[in-house]
Each structure stands twice: as structure tokens, then as C-alpha cells.
Design a protein that fits this description.
The structure holds two protein chains of two kinds.
Chain A: E1 3-5, E2 10-14, E3 19-21, E4 24-26, E5 31-38, E6 44-50, E7 56-58, E8 64-68, E9 73-78, E10 87-95, E11 104-105, E12 109-114
Chain B: E1 4-7, E2 10-13, E3 19-25, E4 32-38, E5 44-51, E6 57-58, E7 67-73, E8 76-81, E9 90-96, E10 106-107, E11 111-115
Parallel strand pairs in B: 2-11
Antiparallel strand pairs in B: 1-3, 3-8, 4-5, 4-9, 5-6, 7-8, 9-10, 9-11
Classes of the chains: A mainly beta, B mainly beta.
Chain lengths: ~120, ~120
């Protein structure tokens, strides 16, 4: 079974700092990769996704992520964070084939951005 | 865009009672819906996959008789927590995917269940 690991449980940054959240997965086959964000008091929202093609994917609100197959990684980045980016971020993986749609989530990373 | 509505958003019940949570896809049909549970300070955990017109598929460790899932139509799945206990207090989230195509999951707003 696939698993997803997010390395940082809590990241604290100041506004304008650069962000990189790590995500590694364990599955040898085709995967679809996602980053979801949950703002305080709100529901999960899709930030970006990777299915195929260009391994560098751009999402909403200036976020991007790079799929590095050899490293089984899908790290999330943003050049300059804002206070409004304070939220919890989840990396998720779907193994290809019949289990499509069955997400495996990472533990989540809480991002706190100080103004 | 696709919207998933989950109701109620918050419920408090007494130990021993049952609680039903609804998950509706408002503007699309979903043959499959997923139910997740989020414990405090932990990740989302898939509980079960709800299939329209057939039995749900439960993940290992999830009690089928305690968490009853019914997916009676292409737009509605329900999760019933039977004989709830305080340890069932959690955040439950459903998600659904548009039938066909490579589309990501759309999530409901979640239900905060507190069992007293």
C-alpha cells in the first residue's frame, strides 16, 4: 500500500520568506499527486495537482510543486509567503489504476506566517 | 465548479445515540464518494469508499456495523455513526469525483461530531 510522508509538522515563517514543504511517497507505479490546503475554519481545497506532463505544476495563489519521480517527491513551493497563507497543507497520492480516487494523505504541515 | 455539500457541519450527541451525516454532490453525479476522518493534529484517514447501488468498501480497522454507509443515488451518500461513543468524536469529511475523466476530488465542508 502506498504511504505519504510530510517531513515538517509545523513551519513558521515571516511574510515574504520563501516556502518549501516536503512530500515523499512510497509507491512504485503510476501516481497522481495533489496538494490540498485547509484554511482555519474552512474545508479542504485543492491547491494543485499533477497527473502527467510537465513535472513542474503551478497552482492557485502562487504555489507550485515539482514532481521528481526518481526521488518519489512532490514538494510544494512558494517564493514569497503572505500572512493569508497560514493554513494546514496536505500532500496526497492516488495510485494509478482501479484505485483511482482513493487518496492517501500525508500527515499535514501547519504553516504559520507572521506579518 | 463542482460542489459537495455536507450536512450537518456540526453536531453534538449523547453517548449511545446514532448520528447521520449527509454528503451531496450538488451539480454533478458521483458514482463513488469517499468518507474520511480527521483526528486532532493528525492527517485525514480514509474510512470507506461509498459506491452507488452497492455495498461500501471499508478500510482495514474501520467497523462496518458502527459506521453505516448508504449511497442510494448518484448525488447522495450518508454516513451513520451508530451507538456513538466519545471516542467517535472527530471531524468527518466526504469527497466525490465527477464521473469520468481525470478530475480531482471535491470535498465537503466536513462535520464536527462531538459525543458527550
Amino acid at each position: 500500500a502506498q504511504s505519504v510522508s510530510q517531513h515538517n509538522h509545523h513551519v513558521i515563517l515571516s511574510e515574504a520568506a520563501s516556502l518549501e514543504l516536503g512530500c515523499n511517497y512510497s509507491y512504485g507505479g503510476t501516481v497522481n499527486l495533489f496538494w490540498y490546503v485547509q484554511y482555519p475554519g474552512q474545508h479542504l481545497q485543492l491547491l494543485l495537482k499533477y497527473f502527467s506532463g510537465d513535472p513542474l505544476v503551478k497552482g492557485i495563489k502562487g504555489f507550485e510543486a515539482e514532481f521528481i519521480k526518481s526521488k518519489f517527491s512532490f514538494n510544494l513551493r512558494k517564493p514569497s509567503v503572505q500572512w493569508s497563507d497560514t493554513a494546514e497543507y496536505f500532500c496526497a497520492v492516488v495510485a494509478g489504476g482501479t484505485s483511482y480516487g482513493k487518496l492517501t494523505f500525508g500527515q499535514g504541515t501547519i504553516l504559520t506566517v507572521h506579518p | 465548479g463542482a460542489v459537495v455539500s455536507q450536512h450537518p457541519s456540526r453536531v453534538i450527541c449523547k453517548s449511545g445515540t446514532s448520528v447521520k451525516i449527509e454528503c451531496r454532490s450538488l451539480d454533478f453525479q458521483a458514482t463513488t464518494m469517499f468518507w474520511y476522518r480527521q483526528f486532532p493534529k493528525q492527517s485525514l484517514m480514509l474510512m470507506a469508499t461509498s459506491n452507488e447501488g452497492s455495498k461500501a468498501t471499508y478500510e482495514q480497522g474501520v467497523e462496518k456495523d458502527k459506521f453505516l454507509i448508504n449511497h442510494a443515488s448518484l448525488t447522495l451518500s450518508t454516513l451513520t455513526v451508530t451507538s456513538a461513543h466519545p471516542e467517535d468524536s472527530s471531524f468527518y469529511i466526504c469527497s466525490a469525483r465527477v464521473v469520468g475523466g481525470h478530475s480531482p476530488l471535491h470535498f465537503g465542508n466536513g462535520t464536527r461530531l462531538t459525543v458527550t
